[in-house]
Every structure is written in structure tokens, then in C-alpha cells.
Amino acid sequence: MGNSRTVQWRRDASNSRTVRVLWALGTGTFLAAIVLIVAARLFLLLGQTESVVVATLVAVAIVAVAAVSRTTGRLEFLRRRLPFSNAGGGLDRVRDSTIGAIVMAVVILVLARGVGGGLGHGLAALTIPFAFVAIVLATALESVGELDCEQRRLRLYDPEEVVDLELVDDVSVRSVGDTALLTLEYAQPDGTYVPGPRRLVVPAAVARELQALVAER
Fold this sequence. Notes:
The structure is a single chain. The chain is an alpha+beta fold. The protein folds into two domains: 17-140, no CATH class; 143-215, FACT complex subunit Spt16p/Cdc68p (PH-domain like), CATH 2.30.29.210. It is built from six helices and seven strands; from the N terminus they run βαααααββββββα. The chain has a four-stranded antiparallel sheet. Helix 1 runs antiparallel to helix 5 (127-141) and helix 2 packs antiparallel against helix 3 (87-115). The longest helix is centred in the N-terminal third of the chain and has 32 residues, at 50-81. Keywords: Membrane, Transmembrane, Transmembrane helix. This is DUF5673 domain-containing protein.
């Protein structure tokens, strides 16, 4: 008897704390660096002291968090009244980036001014490549798709791709918590290369289901 089940999943910042934190810190670092550089240059031109710069940044941060939180509350109320409204998803990312920017601005200031010297400035500069890595990881950990057990097909979205499991010889799984890294080994009929993703990040439950389907052949 065929298996008619379809397993669907979605892993992004809305339901994965890891993706959300990486995204917030990554984008927040870039925002913090830009704001700190612009503010420092502006107040330097105006002849203001460093304490004035810091106080102004703190005030701006408080206002930004309050504004985003207030807008989020209003949109949440709107979403409850209008189920078709999807405006909250984008705003959640804006809020996360704002909070991440505040956190990373504090980190950069502590490193640059608190630690000081070449070490402090060097560590502060390293936050930029850290931000790049965090955004890349957040993007890599996101995945949306479905596993059609009856047709033995794996459908991926964003980007859209279909994997015929009949062409998959083996699946190896490495799990960390509820996340699994899949490595797919494809058959090569008559030495022909089979296109398709070689590595995927999916929920652990989906990985186990996929591995069981391939093992049934």
C-alpha cells in the first residue's frame, strides 16, 4: 500500500530562534556600524564631545525601539482582525534588526572605547565579517518545502526545485537539536550526472522521514 502522506515544513526567522538571532545580529551589526560612523563624523563636524554622541545614540535607540514596538502592537491587532494581513512578518524583521543594532552598537562601543587600543579597535572591526557570516548562516538555515511520500518527491521552494527520490542512492544525516544537515548521494545511470541539491538543512523529523523513504527502495 502506498504512503499518501505529505510532510510540509517551513524554517525561517518566524519559527526558528537560531535563524532569528543570526539575522538580527548580522543585519544589526551593519546598521550599528553605519549609524556609529555617521554619528561620529556628524558630531565631529559640529564640534560635539564624545559623551554627547553617546547620549544622542542612546536616546535614538530608545525612541526606535519604542516606535517599532508600538507599530508591531498595532499590526498584531490588525492581523487578528484581518487574517489575510501578512504585514507583521516584515515588521518583525525590522524590529529584530533594530534590537540587534542596539546590542551590537553597545558591543562595538565597549570594544572600541572600553578595551581601547589596537586590540579593542581590531575586535570592533571583526564584527563586520562576523555580521556577514551570521547573515550567510541565517540564509543557509532557512528552508521551505514538502516531502511527498506517495510520489517519492522532495519539493523545495525559494528557490523552487524538485528532487526525485528514485534517483537518490543514499542519505546521510547529521542532527543538531531539531535541525538536520542532509547529504544526498545521487545515482549516475550510464555515468550521467544528475543535477540537484547535494546538501540541505531541514527539520530533524523531515530528515528521518526522507532517510526512511530512500532506505525502502
